[in-house]
Amino acid sequence: MLLAAPLQQAPSAGQIITLLVNTVRVLSSSRVAQPCWESRVLPVPDPRQVPRNAGLINRVPAISVHRLFGDRCPPVSLSCFQTPQRIPYYEAVRQEFTSAKVGDSFGPTWETCWFKVELSIPPAWAGREVHFVWESDGEGMVWRDAQPVQGLTKEGEKTSYVLTSSLKEMEPHSLTLDVHELLVDLEVLLDMAQLLGEENQRSFQALYAANQMVNVCDVTDPSTFPAARDLAAAIFSQRNGESQHTIHAMGHCHIDSAWLWPYEETIRKCARSWVTVVHLMECNPELTFACSQAQQFEWVRSWYPGLYAQIQDFVAKGQFIPVGGTWVEMDGNLPSGESMVRQFLQGQRFFQEQFGRICSEFWLPDTFGYSAQLPQLMRGCGIRRFLTQKLSWNLVNAFPHHTFFWEGIDGSRVLTHFPPGDSYGMHGRVEEMLKTVKNNKDKGRVNHSAFLFGFGDGGGGPTQKMLDRMKRMSDTDGLPRVQISTPDRLFSALEKESSQLCTWVGELFLELHNGTYTTQAQIKKGNRECERILHDVEVLSTLAVARGGVFQYPASELQRLWRLLLLNQFHDVLPGSCIQLVVEDALQYYGEIRRVGTRLQEEAVQSFCRELLQPEAGSAEGTLVLNTLPWERTEVISRPQPTGTETLALVTVPSMGYAIVREPLLSPSPVAVRKQENGSIVMENGVITACLDMMGHLTSLQLVDSARESVPDGCYANQFALFDDVPLYWDAWDVMDYHLETRKPVTTLLKPLEITLAGGLRGSASFSLQIGESSTLIQEIILDAMCPYLRFLTQVEWKEAHKFLKVEFPVQVRSTNATYEIQFGHLQRPTHWNTSWDWARFEVWAHKWLDLSEHGFGVALLNDCKYGASAHGNILSLSLLRAPKSPDATADITHHQFTYAVMPHLGSFQDAGVIQRAYNLNFPLHVFPASSAQHEAWSAFSVSSPAVVLETVKQAEDRPEAVVVRLYEAHGSTVIAWLQTALPVKEAMLCDLLEQPVGQGHLPLEQRGIRLSFTPFHVLSVLLVLRQ
Ligand SMILES: [Zn+2]
């Protein structure tokens, strides 16, 4: 069969060459997809020829690449087959191909069409460069001799594949290259003439040189070309002075791991883009290419091993440069602290394993804001340098720096650079170089900038033309010095100049895309739940291993599940700015984590609680209650009964351990629920008293001991409000400040508040509302014995278009700042709109809680899966649901369930335990039927200070005999904490976030435990080696 026939790299005239091209139409804008697509296929090998219009100066930039091609000839044969699947090459070649012709249409979108093309180059073209030209509306890959050789995209300016640079059997001649070079010369000179400005004499020198070139160049006589080129070279070789700004150009190709295309297509996008980069590197040994996202390398490694081997060679040569250090370019706001650590842990370990080194810079050019905890996490993962540019998208305030030190909430600093051209997809044009210099906000402090060139988002990467443009600007008077460089060379230069740099403290908040904290609520919920599941699997599995027996820590399964979770944290998936196909994949991955995670939890519990779980013959049933959080908890649980019913019980469980419950505790103060004459309902539990009206509004919330009221007179808390939500630019991404002007309180009652549980250990009442035209909400308001917060279990049937649902809590607290939980800590944001920086944060993000406190009193709002929030004046709002229609017309139109809670408190939120209560809400106790025999309660870990949270307990990577525990200071205080453990610890040492030991050797094991010293928001990891 022809396809299998070996082919020489440089073909001879007349020889039949067979290529396979697979083409797929993908979405490239967030507009609704057309049902069908046209594919204009022009498979014609063409020699480059003199363009007729090369001499007309004003037409040069407009000259299409096709004017470079003169002679052309049709293919010998063209055949195809179409499939909805993304199949590998070896499967494709076995299919039956049917005849096709140039100009045929194929579709719909997402179908892949494989074309077999047979070519024969005319003998008359001997010695010339011969191109295979392919134009279709899709993205394609050319396969030759069963290997991918070239990606094709019209958008990425790649529509031809060079079959040979010099057809055999004659001396090569350089006519075609000369033409190409002349065109680039003219383009750069014209840009200089137009853009340097009339006050700059270099613009006139460039214009006159270009004019002279046209005069000496006779398009029909190639012998005139060298003289024209000499004129250009004379301008380009006039050097800059020593002080000129240096631009560090690096090839780049931003590939969204999923966005307007599903994950599976991204695998092929990576292959298409990177095979082209490799080919470009073969011809341009100076080309460098910065490439992030370990997941994408892993995809290419498993699906395109031949290409991956070539990439490895270029990595070894220092041209293909892995950057970023993370598994994917994740969202910078919503992943938990531990998730962010795992992004680096999985990423850096992959880069170390595959390429022998970790990345030294964090690379996140396209993410929608950056948590103030990131500097510390970067430093803990071997990274002191950070590159992004997204803050240039700020709608309100221009960020004041391009190169600066960024200081996180704990005081850690990283050198941060925003390429001043404000883009990660430059084309090597004069205009972009001038913008880079002009725009730089830190002139005088630094004289070096990054410049990332290459088509991005959907892939494509750098082109030869971009490189050729920049070659002319390497050191030309009037233009910045443009060097092909590397991230390391750039940051090393910036470090040398860093003595005068400014410092930005706190979060890098993006003043745009603030709807991404709320859009696609099921993805947000999946993320929060799966973070909890993996936390619990790790804790329980570690305890199971430490308790001995045959239990094997499920390291490889956990790695697989973590990688799924981390992948879904990609910056267009977790933010919800993706198409429906991606949402389906993401929800399926969460389903997989839930399913396997639940099994792993059960296996761990079965292993280390085996005797407890086996009821003895004739004994009454007991209950095993497991607590995966590092503090003792007293809570109401629901106990399954042998009859299939459930009963409530109040239990106390030690920190990170278990208790067997036979006789539940009696509550010192049972919950009482009373209906008043006016229909309102009062719920109290000895800690708080809540009064609710028939609409479910909270009209009063008091702390029993102090009688301090939380709800201002005449105000309603737990008030739902609906807003018109029609953003100007990006539907799924943005919520604009003007939506606040359209507030409509939800007032249509479907079912008034009724008592559903009369009290005892738990009291509850429920009601339902009509929201908007056709959505409904049912809420159960729950108060448990001894619990300091009131819980709102909410179900919404959501069928809106461009509406935003929030719930509001006006509180009787005055403060100019509210506090929001972030990764491993918290920060404050203003409650007023004094300056543009303040009002630009009308919609912000938080993790499990936010709090508004004055001296001695405050109110916190907790949640189990929400991220969008705001605090304006004395009103705390939680953002619940949005209904954007693009890029997913079905976004959020479904059933939703979520819980939030309100907790009034005396003293500070730290001393009142808001942080711990928010954890409790998110990490329910695990309950199993068990033996009723006498068993001591058991605690594996505890920490002496309430300021310190033991977040993570896991087996060390590659060290089955060691456990890693991660703790952080959560109050914002300097504190000593003692870590106690029942595990058989042989030695303990501090380690970094990559689990490498740091500092001076071992931590002493003392009677009180291991002494750990913290500064505010400090994250510490400890490696505990266990006795076997
Ligand atoms: Zn992106």
Automatic annotation (TrEMBL):
Question: SUPFAM superfamilies this protein is in?
Answer: Families 57/38 glycoside transferase middle domain, Galactose mutarotase-like, Glycoside hydrolase/deacetylase
InterPro entries, per the entry: Ams1-like_N, Gal_mutarotase_sf_dom, GH38_C, Glyco_hydro/deAcase_b/a-brl, Glyco_hydro_38_C, Glyco_hydro_38_cen, Glyco_hydro_38_cen_sf, Glyco_hydro_38_N
Residue ranges of the TM segments: none
Record domain Glycoside hydrolase family 38 central: where: 511-590
Q: What class of enzyme is it?
A: hydrolase
The UniProt record lists the EC number as: 3.2.1.24
Alphabetically sorted, this entry's keywords are:
Glycosidase, Hydrolase, Metal-binding
Indicate the segments annotated as coiled coil, or none if absent: none
Family the UniProt entry places it in: Belongs to the glycosyl hydrolase 38 family.
- In Swiss-Prot or TrEMBL terms, this protein is called alpha-mannosidase
